[in-house]
Write a structure and sequence with these properties.
Number of strands: 0
Distance between the termini: 79 Å
Radius of gyration: 25 Å
Shape: elongated
Number of helices: 7
Structural class: mainly alpha
């Protein structure tokens, strides 16, 4: 049976753009996870030093603001550098296609042959793809870049900022509104449940079993809160 475009299952994860969407979702989950753990560590640490709500919430808001801005700026700089590199590589490829088209075609044939195609099929595929879009053909095989889907620094920065804020709000709200006598325990439980959720989501995105990611998330978060609470308690007693 001959495969046709209509015969493909369009719900399968290999459809165009799926890898990019999964990467963005994964980055969003990781950003939320960072917001949960870092803000929980701050507010639990301050709670170890004092039971006054205002200093705890103030520290949490400061941590949320600084962490979200740090995530956004870091992601913007990182993705901008990536996009600059991609643009430079594409400009070089355009120049080579313009100045030495025959050599570039031979190179493309060689790359397809190296993937297992026969020389005849590799030649035919390379010629047909070159006729349609030579730059896209070379960029995909040689550089691993889609010229029509370059990274967007602004989108990445906003996604990181918002995901961090969403994650950070949970421990901040938990410790701010819980009764004083149980605020630390309440916050620890809320954070552990949130980390279980992000662990499950990250496992689903990676098509892996959920147990190990959940254990890593929860144990890491509990360790971070235990360390900061211990440090806060020691500092509070010393001061």
């Amino acid at each position: 049976m001959t495969a046709t475009p209509e015969s493909f299952d369009h719900d399968e994860p290999h459809r165009a753009g799926m890898a990019g969407r999964l990467n963005r979702l994964r980055a969003g989950v990781l950003g939320a996870n960072d917001g949960i753990v870092s803000t929980a560590g701050i507010v639990i640490g301050v709670a170890g030093a004092t039971n006054q709500t205002v200093p705890i919430v103030t520290a949490g808001i400061a941590g949320l603001s600084a962490g979200a801005m740090s995530m956004a700026v870091g992601e913007f700089v990182s993705v901008s550098s990536q996009r600059d590199s991609e643009r430079a590589l594409l400009a070089k490829e355009r120049r080579e296609l313009r100045e030495t088209p025959d050599e570039e075609l031979a190179e493309l044939v060689g790359m397809y042959a190296a993937k297992g195609l026969t020389p005849e099929v590799a030649q035919s595929v390379a010629e047909q793809l070159t006729a349609v879009d030579a730059l896209a053909a070379h960029a995909e095989v040689e550089l691993g870049i889609d010229p029509n889907a370059l990274a967007h620094p602004g989108h990445a920065a906003w996604a990181s900022f918002l995901s961090f804020v969403v994650g950070a709000l949970l421990p901040l709200l938990a410790i701010a509104f819980a009764p004083t006598r149980i605020r630390v325990v309440f916050t620890v439980v809320a954070v552990a449940l949130a980390l279980m959720l992000t662990g499950v989501v990250s496992a689903r995105l990676g098509q892996a079993h959920w147990l190990r990611p959940v254990l890593r998330n929860v144990l890491g978060g509990l360790l971070a809160m235990a360390v900061t609470y211990g440090i806060g308690t020691l500092v509070g007693r010393a001061i």
